[in-house]
Amino acid sequence: MIIDRIDFRLANDLAELEPLVRALDCFGEAVALPPKTAHRLTLAIDEFVNNAVDYGYPDHRQGEITVSIRHRVEHLEIVIADDGDAFDPLTAPAPDLSGSIEERRIGGLGVHLVRTLATSFAYRREDGRNVVTLALALDA
């Protein structure tokens, strides 16, 4: 059996990240992802799931996050959706990288990093859900 896609559905709880990362590792092995791509995949998923949990549900209501990954010929197609408050990461200002780490404003670096690593990045609000779609190249 060849695995070329995987779908996850999880609660908006950071405890869900550990089993998700283990499943991502298994997926990466199953489709023989290059180590660099596997690392970028885990980084991107971790960043967007963390942000959804931390900022998308300020009232601590229960919610659902979905992650879908498709292995294509030259890239991974990733769709992350949540039913949290609307947030378009494309409108987030790029972080100020000048100055020392102690002087920098907290936040924004993870989304900026994922945007620079992705070959494409899109956001839409659909049926009350934030939907982020990105592609990661299959680097050697």
TrEMBL record:
GO MF terms held by the record: protein serine/threonine kinase activity
Entries under InterPro entries matching the protein: Anti-sigma-factor_SerPK, HATPase_C_sf, HATPase_dom
Superkingdom of the organism of origin: Bacteria
Pfam families in the cross-refs: HATPase_c_2 (PF13581)
Record keywords, A-Z: Kinase, Serine/threonine-protein kinase, Transferase
Residue span, Histidine kinase/HSP90-like ATPase domain: 11-135
Name the record gives this protein: Histidine kinase
Species of origin: Ancylobacter defluvii
Encoding gene per record: rsbW
